[in-house]
DNA sequence: GCACCCCGTCGAAACGATTCGACAATCTCG
DNA sequence: CGAGATTGTCGAATCGTTTCGACGGGGTGC
């Protein structure tokens, strides 16, 4: 194995000089720099990660805590992970993969053993047992999603309030005057990943502001429940011409149910969804949608961490603006009615 | 930060003794052991990963190289990654995530810098540029999938030959006498991840052995191509009563096309697929299938690596037996004909 | 031409573990 | 009962970097 002293000898300098060339922490003359870099290349030198970590108390590794077993969001998670790794590499860091199951002990373990310099925690719940720990750890961290008590923590996510508003705005601009939000099943609102409430709040506020009538309905993603929800919705709101769906698994079922109830999309009913682009594109009728910007979240999360590692201060909350992609499922309200 | 000398002092022993208690590499009296362990607990001591890596030249980290951007197989990859992390932890190792894109340089980097002790490489191609490098690296590695030249490499995957055989066997036992394999598009056979050929070989050999007639057809996963393939197949093989589908994206299209051609499943035609269980279950007609045993592959891959790290010798090739799950798409051939 | 400062480099001391040889004390066996 | 093997522990060297203080030499200001 080739080490720093080998490089130093060959370049005719001391090991510390080589180190300074590598880190740039002290000025080095151009000539020396060139000689050192040449030696490094010729010898194929790579600093020993362990030694480096020991001496500098920096491992240049980030931990990424992922829910590795769950179901629906998998491709989005993958995109996110990809963005994290890629961005981390751009900042000369690597990524250590931890599972949700390792829980608090896992976090403490990698932190105490100085295996990583910082943490990214995905899939944060409203009442997340890890938040007190994260606050007390000496390592910087970034959470994906917002817990109930977010103070003292750095969090990032799609701005769900703005998302709800944006969907209503889109429908309003198309001339719709009576809209509904079909959300997650009741238990999600209760257990709470928080984003459900925020979408609903944005939705309702925007509808109010635009002076259009609105309803919010939770919805189980089963064929029977969907059927019933749709029937009730159409019965109670005969003037309904637009719906926003924030419920991935129910989306295809809903489309089907509406069509069976005689509503053509988009002629009779405009549909906007909050879901991954993939799903929106591959639906029976391609659906106008707002996607979770997984890549951007991943990238920004890493950049927040890097800033924190460099001692810069960063905003507590980062809310990414929603981007609505128009597809065929939403159209101006027909002249009739 | 609490270090080994702190533990040693509190337990009234030397640092080396603490180390030996932790590693078990030398006999320690029961009494001392207890005292040391107690001190460790009381102080919350965790060995510094970098220091440990430096002194022992073992990082206790595995690299997992994943294709993080691709499309279809995502949930399977995730399962696999989950199994790798979980199993690695059981062996007191962590997992570093690398993307495919980092390529050979990435492998060399983590190897040379002693960041990791071993490598797991997913998504290996028939002609994979990384195989020569893996052969020459001093680190042990395990490949998921088989390259063309596998000698000197440790590989693991589903036994696709046996899979082809198993599908035919299932159909034969149900009384079918004329079957077809609908495989991947031609370019996949050419570019080659290898498994396509092996499935076809197993399929054909088994059909021959059972004395039943068989065809193999590649198949593009587009609506038009599927339509045409199905028509041709039914025209050329009027006695056909069973098909094996080894083409994930085409599966739903094929089911639809067969039914539109007047073949009821399973009354007129039995279908067996090679695809993730998820997909098989959620098809219009739940499909009898053989799945990639992602979890088992991940677990076994890690265990192979651990064995290699311990200096044990392991088999070059590990082929996991297929497990066929019967669903409603396959049934005994009707009494007619 | 002298004091002073800055630039570029060096040497040596950490960093926190593991490991190897040595050694005392206890056992074993003839 | 003594030589030799065994058991349990210690001290010191080592792993490969980074970092800090020091220091020589060339520039600047007066």
Automatic annotation (TrEMBL), chains A, B:
The keyword Metal-binding is annotated on this UniProt entry: no
Keywords, in A-Z order: DNA-binding, Transcription, Transcription regulation
Position of the signal peptide: none
Single GO term (MF): DNA binding
Record's keyword annotation contains GTP-binding: no
Sequence ranges assigned to domain HTH lacI-type in this UniProt record: 2-56
Protein name as catalogued: LacI family DNA-binding transcriptional regulator
């Amino acid at each position: 194995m080739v080490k720093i002293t080998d490089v130093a000898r060959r370049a005719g300098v001391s090991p510390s000089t080589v180190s300074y060339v590598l880190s740039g922490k002290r000025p080095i003359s151009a000539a020396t720099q060139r000689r050192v870099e040449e030696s490094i290349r010729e010898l194929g030198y790579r600093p020993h990660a362990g030694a480096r970590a020991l001496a500098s108390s920096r491992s240049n590794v980030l931990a990424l805590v992922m829910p590795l077993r769950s179901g629906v969001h998998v491709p989005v998670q993958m995109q996110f992970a990809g963005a994290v790794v890629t961005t981390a590499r751009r900042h000369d860091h690597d990524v250590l993969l931890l599972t949700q199951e390792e829980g608090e002990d896992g976090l403490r373990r990698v932190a105490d053993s100085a295996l990583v310099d910082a943490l990214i925690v995905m899939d944060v719940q409203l009442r997340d047992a890890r938040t007190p720990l994260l606050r007390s750890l000496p390592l910087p961290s970034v959470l994906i999603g917002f817990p109930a008590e977010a103070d003292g923590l750095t969090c990032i996510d799609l701005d769900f309030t703005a998302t709800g508003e944006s969907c209503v705005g889109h429908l309003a601009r198309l001339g719709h005057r009576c809209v509904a939000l079909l959300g997650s099943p009741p238990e999600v609102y209760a257990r709470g990943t928080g984003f459900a409430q925020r979408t609903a709040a944005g939705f309702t506020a925007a509808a109010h502001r635009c002076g259009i009538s609105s309803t919010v309905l939770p919805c189980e993603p089963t064929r029977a429940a969907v059927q019933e929800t749709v029937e009730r919705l159409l019965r109670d709101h005969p003037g309904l011409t637009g719906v926003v769906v924030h419920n991935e698994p129910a989306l295809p079922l809903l489309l089907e149910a509406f069509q069976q109830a005689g509503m053509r999309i988009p002629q009779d009913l405009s549909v906007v969804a909050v879901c991954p682009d993939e799903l929106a594109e591959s639906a029976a009728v391609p659906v106008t949608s707002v996607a979770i910007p997984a890549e951007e979240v991943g990238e920004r999360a890493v950049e927040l961490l890097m800033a924190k590692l460099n001692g810069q201060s960063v905003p507590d909350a980062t809310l990414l603006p929603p981007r609505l992609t128009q597809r065929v499922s939403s159209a101006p309200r027909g002249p009739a009615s």
